[in-house]
Amino acid sequence: MMGLRPLGVTKLLNIAQNAIRRRQFISSSTLTTHENTITFSDGKTLKVGTGRLARMADGCAVASFGDTSVMVTAVGKIKSTPQGFMPLTVDYRQKAAAAGRIPTNFLRRELGPTEREILTSRLIDRSLRPLFPDEYTSETQIICNLLAVDGVHDPDILSINAASAALSVSDIPWNGPVGAVRVGMIDNELKVNPSRREMSQSILNLVVVATSQNLVVMLDATADCILQQDFLKAIKVGVKECQSIIQGITRLQKEAGKRKRNETAAAAVIEGQGQEQEATNKENSLKIEKLKPGQIPPDLADAAKTFGELRLKDIFMDHTFDKLGRDNAVSALRSDVVDKLNKNFPNYDPSLISESFSKLTKNVFRQLILDEKTRCDGRSLVQLRNISCDVDLCKPLHGSSLFQRGQTQVFCTVAFDSIDSALKSDPVSVITGGLKEKNFFLHYEFPPYATNETGRGGGQYGRREMGHGALAERALRPVIPKDYPFTIRLTSEVLESNGSSSMASICGGSLALMDAGVPISAPAAGVAIGLVTKFEGGDTKHLEDYVLLTDILGIEDYMGDMDFKLAGTRKGITALQADLKIPGLPLKVVMEAVLQGTDAKNEILEIMKQTIAAPRTIKKDNMPLVEQIEVPTHKRAKFIGSGGRNVKKLTSETGVQVTEVDDIHLNLFAPNQTALEEAKEMINEFLTEQREPQLDFGAIYTAKIVEIRDIGVMVTLYPNMQPALLHNSQLDQRKILHPSAVGLEVGQEINVKYFGRDPVSGGMRLSRKVLQVPQMDSTVVRDLNASR
User: Fold this and answer.
1) What is the pTM of this model?
2) Mapping DSSP to helix (H, G, I), strand (E, B) and coil, where does residue 333 land?
């Protein structure tokens, strides 16, 4: 009997998987379309289908809600990558064509990703990543293609559900599906998946992503100081509504889903072989199982534990270490242990040896927290790091603050500008998101020196920085007055980082706003809550052995299972973001994290209050000003000047910006009081430089013809006057078609009667025709040219 050819196990696995994928693709070309309709509690329906579009992708699903449709494809490479993490890429792109628009840029096509596209891509990534198996490290890409956008239903939540369906029906290993809903609160009532117009009236924007058995996978929220009990209720409602989506996607998976690669690979090795080869094939199957990515051989794991466990415990229990000292000590121990393991296990791959030490480090760190309730810096589980605050550091700035929490240090500055400097959104973002412009925005900067590293600086703005800045901005926006007359730019530069830099930006930003005198409704603060569990695969529904950590360090974030960020005022919550590394979290743990985070947030607010308790009421000398002035319609041209000369001169010499309010009112934005006074003097000169006499209604004046036109003549009543039109209909009692019909010429003087100004255009109303009726002898003709 012939046995199996002596192929390498990895090569055999790849051949088997490729063969399965070929068979699946051949069969997929004849698949019919499968679609499931999901009905929510309020009667709205979500449709999810597969089998019609993009069939060469590993998985494809189309989700429709109202007239908004999104197609999401999932493709994963067969070969695993050597990295210790899963290289997942999510690309969400807004298509102008999907909204029936043409891009407004020069090329009239979609260019680089916008901020909204990047933030939505991160939202989808955070919803999917926790459910990939640890052993799956193949490069995977999710692409969200907007097919149609109706301007009523946002496509971001739809994209999460479509991505969940695409992964579920694919052969990519994934422990889904998940469901996603948006929860709003309108008139104190919770509403699931509200329309864009309804969201404009909502005080809550909560995105809930959950898996089966009511397990929370991801939370992302912005709120207008919503009460804690209302927020917790919204989470429960969102998780409940997600279950119907999960059930619908599960039905779709059963109808049209492919077998997962980790299930089919071993079956393909055994498939087609005789009974005689059963033992050999089982042995090969076991070898394949042993070669799962990330799995450490027992003998190597035991040796790493022998060489490094006790020394790692000594490092993590030495509370005198700071971040750099602890990192250097672990790095030195890593070099020593890896050298010993390389000598004892020369046949093992060096990357596997390095990974064995990394897993040992993580296990020791987590075990100390779970068993000893000991954190590496000596704090209790709910204790905050030492906090110090300072404001008004730089006098030329409108507002500034320095917030220090442990080894996390953030410097925040506030700059004001005119309302014309508000950040404008692109048209497609307006359709899908509803926000046209922002008069408050926060820019978050994380230079490499903040973690003692080198790298590109100079304003490089990556996806991480954009996400952290957006979170801090959303946390502070509810406390900014909506009718504030300035555009506010808040910058947050992280000078040192050892965890929770985005939450420190909220604290520092709140202090800087108060230092600048912005009348915020209440100070805001943020804190990060971590989680360490004994989860080792399987079901997390009955998670019992866990520890919640208040104000986590960077290492506690990296080694832990959750990064739960909560921000708000003393009254309520303004923002929340929860990212997990385990496949779902029971609602009980989520509620505990909210409560623990609220207590920590209130404690931070008390500390901040000792530095500055409320916005400054006494304005700084460099505080900008806005003043409204009145310029009548007929004086607008004189104020603006030829080609805008006067306005340009005003801005260049004083720094004052002019904004139109209505037909007669203008806003002057001045960087300080001195500039405003200079600008007002210049404006008076513009308007009074050529002082015009007061004209009396019904009076008769001598006018000089300065121009002949087809429709009439242009005349002036006094020197330096802006010429006014005397229309053909007002030149003579007879109907004439041209001024030459009555012998009028340039330079000729004629008498006209003044009837005030037109209420719409502001132009003079003059007539020569009415004077051709015999006048009384007492009629006085006023010659303003002679008086000059």
Assistant:
1) 0.80
2) helix
